[in-house]
Amino acid sequence: MRASAEPKPTTDTKPIVKTGADLLVEALIDQKVETIFGYPGGAVLPIYDALYRAEGSFDHVLPRHEQGGIHAAEGYARVSRKPTVVIGTSGPGATNLITGIADAMMDSLPLVVFTGQVAKSVIGTDAFQESDVMGITTPITKHNYQVQDLEDLPRIVNEAFHIASTGRPGPVVVDIPKDISATVYEKDVQSEFHLPGYQPTIKPNPLQINKLREALLIAKKPVVLTGAGILHAGGSEALKQFVENYDVPVTSTLLGLGAFPGDHHRFLGMAGMHGTYAANMALYECDLLINIGGRFDDRLTGNLKHFAPNARVAHIDIDPAEIGKNVPTEIPIVSDAKRAIDKLNELEPAALDHQEWMEKLENNKQNYPLWHNESEDVILPQYLLRKVHQFTKGEAVVTTDVGQHQMWAAQYYTFNRPDRWVTSGGLGTMGFGFPAAIGAQIAAKDSTVVAIVGDGGFQMTMQEMSLLQERGLPVKILIVNNQALGMVRQWQEKFYDERYSHSIIETQPDFVKLAEAYGLHGYKMESVQEIDEKLDAILNNDKPAIIDCRVVQLENVYPMIAPGKGSHEMIGVMKP
Amino acid sequence: MRRIITATVHNRSGVLNRVTGLLAKRQFNIESISVGRTETEGVSKMTFVVDVEDERKLEQLSKQLNKQIDVIKVSDITDKQIVARELAMIKVLTTPQQRGELQAIIEPFRATIIDVSKESMTVQITGDSDKVDALIELLRPYGLKELARTGVTAFTRGQQRQQTEMKPYSILN
């Protein structure tokens, strides 16, 4: 018989018979968890039994592979900005989650991952489906726990949510031995916690804020670099105000796209390896660089020797360890991005005028815009991405894997709103985009969600099409199909004398039939003439769709900063 | 640069693994590490001797350690007034005739003999690393059979001498 789905009141003093797994479920209800991405197995049987008893409390999403489940959780976390729960069993269940945990760590996504573990009595004996989850996940988690005592479980769950979602967000793993979740427990347990070693600084130091303001007052060529920290902090509106107050241009990291409107006249486009000429030259020539919530990744900076050589650097970041890690920083501000920007906005507005600098940047924008080849016949991937933008009015949630299609999406799908862009930036995970779109769609029910994926990456996690079928989720999967691992091929072309070693994949499934096998609609697009009609119809209905879009195989992503070069040494800036 | 770093940590399972894993992952070179309980229940103290390239690397080391949830406090005590001690046990090959001679060598080091057998003696020495090094070098010619060192553990002194950054200048030169 199923018990009531109502959470048991915590103030009840009567002894309640419950198992460790029930305690876990109660703790999840206390944390207001709505959605769980999980896959059952031997070591989590007690947890799944408790979930069964608590039927109705959560929407449990069952992926077809744990990796799909955790990437979906990442998409959910990025769009909802809430800590997101993942459950996997011990051994292979846990190891299948590893790529997603590492991905969430690199891109600062708040996940709380529960893994089953073999019973305490057999830990360390190479028991069936045992793996050293603590050992494996220590370097790729913000924190991890193995529950040793049932009494600790509610406290650990609360700590895990707190740690995952505050400060710089990140994944927390809680490894629960099977005997702990199965044990019946009869008294109330403590769930309060105290973490003296974890007190994130979220308010900026006023002295440093003043220092930054003074630097702004004398700067002739300032530029703001937006990172994902602004999105995590919900600081987009504050940023717009700041940019107007101080008359500064804005560029962005890959993950920071959407923090500032892409069509704003002060926006220079994305910076970095495949950033725009205007953005990279602004970084090269500026005399004051204000990085808000980015981490100066090597794909952004290029060769550090040539990075912002004449600039005073100010860096606002909630993680002090990121400040000064790669780039020497004169004005360090440890703070939540929004709070720091708010403080700057509170100060008396200064009548600043950077007309000369803004004009120069505007000229760069006009003279060296992004360019691509054109065709009246075959489909150029860049053209395709522009069309996707057009037919979704720039309002869609867009997810990607890693590679050429990701860069084209970043370049040509102009993001005007925050939290619409879900991509695997730091780890660069193939197979991320499609499952992430599932999570994003669950979090943003009424939004159009487009998974822009390569033919390579899609084939890594495409089994999750079952979820679209099962839930009728209207995710649109756009396969930018060049029958190649495009970015690998591009590097082989440029740096390995066109030796295309294992990067051309001409044997592929019939994606249309595959879609049909999963009960979904599949489409194929092979010529420019088909694009308008088909995209318009597919993107503007509420059905899932898989679009196999054949694009030019040998197309490259430009402009490009070759590895080891500085941001002023771009190639492919202009059409040859 | 050789630096002495101390970290107070929550004594939870996995904390040593997390800390040493972090140092390895970020390519810090640890010369020695010692861990033990402190006066506070559940809190341990780690003392690292590390070799870092420059100030920036050092700053990263301290920030990365601080970032760990179970790390409560990190201090670089190299430039403070400190007491630092290491313990070493040295098993030296000796003939019965040499015992007196060795006794004379170790005496100024205030080392003690804690085990004697037919062919060897075990010497225990406590002190800073230089003192331990010096004694080891003196004993080496006799033949070292076994050597074990604990690594440095260190405290700041109860009273810190006033330290100023200013160099003493004179108007005369």
Automatic annotation (TrEMBL), chain A:
One of its GO terms (biological process) is L-valine biosynthetic process. It catalyses: 2 pyruvate + H(+) = (2S)-2-acetolactate + CO2. Residues 401-549 form the Thiamine pyrophosphate enzyme TPP-binding domain. Its EC number is 2.2.1.6. It comes from the Bacteria. Binds 1 Mg(2+) ion per subunit. GO terms for cellular component: acetolactate synthase complex. Its cofactor is Mg(2+); thiamine diphosphate. Residues 209-344 form the Thiamine pyrophosphate enzyme central domain. Pathway: Amino-acid biosynthesis; L-valine biosynthesis; L-valine from pyruvate: step 1/4; Amino-acid biosynthesis; L-isoleucine biosynthesis; L-isoleucine from 2-oxobutanoate: step 1/4. Keywords: Amino-acid biosynthesis, Branched-chain amino acid biosynthesis, FAD, Flavoprotein, Magnesium, Metal-binding, Thiamine pyrophosphate, Transferase. Pfam families: TPP_enzyme_C, TPP_enzyme_M, TPP_enzyme_N. Belongs to the TPP enzyme family. GO terms for molecular function: acetolactate synthase activity; flavin adenine dinucleotide binding; magnesium ion binding; thiamine pyrophosphate binding. This is Acetolactate synthase.
UniProtKB/TrEMBL annotation, chain B:
Signal peptide: none annotated. CDD domains: ACT_AHAS. The keyword Hydrolase does not apply. It catalyses: 2 pyruvate + H(+) = (2S)-2-acetolactate + CO2. One of its GO terms (cellular component) is cytosol. Residues 4-79 form the ACT domain. It is an enzyme of class 2 (transferase). Pathway: Amino-acid biosynthesis; L-valine biosynthesis; L-valine from pyruvate: step 1/4; Amino-acid biosynthesis; L-isoleucine biosynthesis; L-isoleucine from 2-oxobutanoate: step 1/4. Keywords: Amino-acid biosynthesis, Branched-chain amino acid biosynthesis, Transferase. It comes from the Bacteria. InterPro entries: Acetalactate_synth_ssu, Acetolactate_synth/TF_NikR_C, Acetolactate_synth_ssu_C, ACT-like_dom_sf, ACT_dom, AHAS_ACT, AHAS_small-like_ACT. Its EC number is 2.2.1.6. Pfam families: ACT_AHAS_ss, ALS_ss_C. PROSITE patterns: ACT. GO terms for biological process: isoleucine biosynthetic process; L-valine biosynthetic process. GO terms for molecular function: acetolactate synthase activity; acetolactate synthase regulator activity. NCBIfam families: acolac_sm, PRK11895.1. Catalyzes the conversion of 2 pyruvate molecules into acetolactate in the first common step of the biosynthetic pathway of the branched-amino acids such as leucine, isoleucine, and valine. Dimer of large and small chains. Belongs to the acetolactate synthase small subunit family. PANTHER family: ACETOLACTATE SYNTHASE SMALL SUBUNIT, ACETOLACTATE SYNTHASE SMALL SUBUNIT 1, CHLOROPLASTIC. This is Acetolactate synthase small subunit.
